[in-house]
Every structure is written in structure tokens, then in C-alpha cells.
Design brief:
By secondary structure, this protein is an alpha/beta fold. The longest helix has 23 residues. It is globular. The protein has two domains: 333 residues, Alkaline Phosphatase, subunit A; 101 residues, Arylsulfatase, C-terminal domain (2-Layer Sandwich). It contains 13 helices and 17 strands.
Length: 467
């Protein structure tokens, strides 16, 4: 009897999906790695050349206040789950790194996204969607890969070059090109049914490399005033831009432009400096970089195109965040019912139709209880006011982003009541999501506080081991 009921249930689900399929949009998420808000042409950059991203913005909507997590795994976790990454403890890149003699001991980072999380791919499959994941995952290893989280067609790829044994062509291939070839094949194979595709690039992550031709091109180009104008960075970004262009072209050539939402995002703000001090890019006029909770670490470029649905050449100034992608895609994909898990994001479907529409949220939160390019901290944005709480010193900084985009004027002393109100709201939110906190470190050593585990000098390390 159980088998009969299950068979009937599956048959009804299949029939429902088949009926709905012609009206369901295709959904494509293109995720850049470490791409900063100020790196793209349509965001004001005149050194880097991003004609395909710029065209995407002309044909769609550019978000001016879109946010992500401060580093990659947290953003990837909230994209897949629609939940704040603090719920899982994935508040640093997996597996994170340790500063054994820092003032605070930060929480241990789990090594994977829990399998019980129902991803947006799993939810969309209930509406009859084909699902494809190409590129960087960074949410767990064996047993916790994309194919274990609802993604049917999967090609993982890291680094900027793929070896011959991976490409299958007998020669190396640049990763952005390799991934794009896979994405185009997926689009062609599924053009007769609704599909969701996530293309997660490794560009523009360090170490920076590009093709000899692109490096030569940008070394010969006049730098942009006030911007590092790194030829390797610009060349790698152009490779990413070419990928965007080819994916859009594949959609249009298949006659799917009016049926396909293409959403381009970055997983966090730009990395301004490598650990050795090498300058990579700049997020100015924003303050900070990847691994911080200043705007330069969490505000990212975001562009949406859906021909005939998303108004062309528009800008959306409403604050949004990567957690919102999940409810947006599941709403557009006509997923029935709610997932049996918390939902921290809100659907942006109304904004995609009208950039001046309102959404039912006025507050955003971030939790970074780790040492990255800053000390452990949390942040809250309510309206235009943003507060950052630093745990080493138990101090706060308060900024009015409407008047001070670069976060240059700390208003905490001028507006103590406002600061206290936001600090209390942030504490309440941390309890709600069960955020893991740093604690005093009994091994604290000011002289070596900034050193990473495994990098400590010989005598000092021997002394600590003996103790």
C-alpha cells in the first residue's frame, strides 16, 4: 500500500511539473570569486574592460546596494540554503585558519554544509527543473558535494587552468573557458525544459594569472587614476567577462532570452592585498576588503537580466543580499509550500519587476567571529545606519551610509542611543540564529598574535609545545 501511494504521489508531482513547465523561467546564477564592487565597468571602473557585464546591465538591472558574506564559504552556504551562515557555523572559509596566540579563540568552522539543508536546487526539482552546477563548491568534500545536494549535472573546477586529463582535449584550458563550455552544453541539452544552472567561477581569486595576450594588452594600457590597475587582475577579469558574454549568447541563440533570468553576483568584496602585501585591487570609494565587515568586504556587484521582464537599463537602490537568492528563485520557479527549515532571505521578485518596489525587510546582519583581514566582529545595517561591533575591544563603530559611503566618520559617540539600540538588536539576532562566538584565548601572546598556525618561529613554537 505504501508503494502504491508513493507511486501515485510521484505521478501527480510529475504531471503537475509537466503542466507547469512551459510557463516556468530558466534560472542562471553566475558567481564570481572575490570580485569587488569597484572592479566592473558599469560600476565606474575605466581600466578593467567588462563589455559583456556592462551590456548585461544595459539590458537589465544593476543593483547598487547588494551584499554578500565577507568571505566565500559563508556566502556559498547562504546561497544554497536561504539561511544565514551563522546558523551552521560556516562563518569563515572552510576549513578556516587559526591564529593560536591571538587575543580571542575563534569558533571552529564545520567542514561542510549539513546534508539536511534543502538547497534551492532540491526545491526547484520538485517543480520539474533540471539542475546543473559548474565550478567551485567549497562547501564540503566527499559525501557533501553538489550532487549530494540536489544538483544533477555537476562539474567541479578550481584554479585558473585545467590540465589535459580534466579537459579531455589533450591540452590545458583556461578554467573560465572550460566552465563556460560545460555551461553551454548544459543549456543546449535542457533548452526544452525549465532548468536552473549555477556557474561558480574561480576568477578573480588569487594567485592571479591570465593569458599572455591579455597580460600584454593591459600592461600596455594607461592605468586608472587612484586604482591599482593590475594587468593580471584585469586580464583574469576579462576572461570572466568573456564567459558571461558566451553564456548570455547561448541563451539568446537558443531563443530563451525571454524565458531566462540571468543573475550575476560576487561571493564577497574584493581582496585588496595578498598576505605578502602585494596590491591586488581597490574597493574605493568603499572602505575595507574581503574578510572585513566594512562595505568593501561585503558590498558586491550584482546584475539581473530577464528580457521583457526585468526593465532594461534600470538601477535598484534597495539593499539586498545573497540570502535572498533562494526565496527569489523558488518563487519564480513556482515551488509549492515552504521548506522545512528557517528562511532568512526575502524574495526579490517584486524588485526585479520594478526597482522601486518595496520588500518586507529593513535590517541586514553579518557575523564574522574570526581573524581574517580584521578582528572578530558582527555588523547590523538598519535603514542607512550601520553598526560594527568588534569583540577584541568590545567597541562599536556607527556609520550613516547615506552620507558616508566610505565609512570615514564614526558616529558612535555622537549618537550613543542609536548605537546602543543597534547593538542590542544585533545581540538579539545572534541569539536567534545561535551564532557561535569567540572566547578569551588562554594562550594569548601579544608579540605573536598576528601569526598563523604553522608559521610560528622555531624557539617560540618549541616553547609553546613544551608548555
Amino acid at each position: 500500500m505504501k508503494f502504491i501511494l508513493l507511486s501515485l504521489s510521484c505521478l501527480c508531482l510529475f504531471a503537475s511539473s509537466t503542466r507547469a513547465a512551459p510557463d516556468l523561467p530558466n534560472l542562471i546564477v553566475i558567481l564570481a570569486d572575490d570580485l569587488g564592487w569597484s572592479d566592473v565597468g558599469c560600476y565606474g571602473n575605466t581600466y578593467n574592460e567588462t563589455p559583456h557585464m556592462d551590456r548585461l546591465a544595459r539590458e537589465g538591472m544593476r543593483f547598487t546596494q547588494f551584499y554578500a558574506g565577507p568571505v566565500c564559504s559563508p556566502t556559498r552556504a547562504n546561497l544554497q540554503s536561504g539561511q544565514d551562515q551563522a546558523r551552521f557555523g560556516i562563518t569563515q572559509h572552510i576549513p578556516g585558519h587559526k591564529r593560536p596566540f591571538a587575543k580571542l579563540a575563534d569558533p571552529v568552522v564545520p567542514l561542510q554544509l549539513p546534508l539536511e539543508v534543502e538547497t534551492y536546487a532540491e526545491r526547484l526539482r520538485t517543480s520539474g527543473y533540471a539542475t546543473g552546477y559548474i565550478g567551485k563548491w567549497h562547501l564540503g568534500g566527499e559525501g557533501h558535494l553538489p550532487q549530494h545536494q540536489g544538483w544533477e549535472t555537476v562539474t567541479e573546477a578550481k584554479g585558473h587552468t585545467q590540465p589535459p586529463e580534466v579537459t579531455g582535449t589533450g591540452k590545458e584550458q583556461r578554467t573560465a573557458e572550460f566552465m563556460t563550455d560545460k555551461a553551454i552544453r548544459f543549456i543546449e541539452a535542457n533548452k526544452e525544459r525549465p532548468f536552473v544552472l549555477q556557474v561558480s567561477h574561480y576568477a578573480v581569486h588569487i594567485p592571479l594569472t591570465t593569458t599572455p595576450e591579455l597580460e600584454k594588452k593591459y600592461r600596455a594600457k594607461k592605468p586608472m587614476e587612484g586604482y591599482p590597475s593590475n594587468p593580471l587582475y584585469a586580464g583574469l577579469l576579462e576572461e570572466l567577462d568573456q564567459s558571461v558574454g558566451r553564456i548570455v549568447q547561448a541563451v539568446d541563440q537558443a531563443g530563451l532570452g525571454e524565458k531566462t533570468l540571468i543573475l550575476f553576483l560576487s561571493d564577497n568584496g574584493g581582496l585588496e592585498h595578498e598576505q605578502n602585501g602585494t596590491v591586488v585591487t581597490s574597493n574605493k570609494p568603499l572602505n575595507g576588503e574581503k574578510g572585513t565587515l566594512y562595505e568593501g568586504g561585503i558590498r558586491v556587484p550584482a546584475i539581473a537580466r530577464w528580457t521583457g521582464r526585468v526593465p532594461a537599463g534600470t538601477e535598484c537602490h534597495t539593499p539586498a543580499i545573497t540570502i535572498d537568492v533562494y526565496p527569489t528563485l523558488t518563487e519564480l520557479g513556482a515551488v509549492q509550500g515552504r521548506a522545512n527549515q528557517p528562511q532568512d532571505g526575502v524574495s526579490l521578485a517584486a524588485l526585479l519587476r520594478d526597482p522601486k518596489a518595496t520588500i518586507a525587510r529593513d535590517t541586514l546582519y553579518w557575523h564574522l567571529p574570526h581573524y581574517h583581514h580584521s578582528t572578530p566582529a558582527s555588523a547590523i545595517r538598519h535603514g542607512d545606519m550601520k553598526l560594527i561591533q568588534f569583540y577584541e575591544t568590545d567597541t562599536v563603530e556607527l556609520y550613516d551610509l547615506n552620507d558616508d559611503l566610505g565609512e570615514t566618520k564614526n558616529l558612535a559617540k555622537e549618537q550613543p542611543e542609536n548605537a546602543q539600540k543597534l547593538k542590542a538588536a544585533l545581540a538579539e539576532w545572534r541569539l536567534k540564529v545561535n551564532a557561535r562566538m569567540p572566547v578569551p584565548n588562554p594562550e594569548y601572546d601579544p608579540a605573536h598574535a598576528s601569526e598563523l598556525a604553522g608559521k610560528l618561529g622555531g624557539k617560540k613554537r618549541e616553547k609553546k609545545i613544551k608548555e
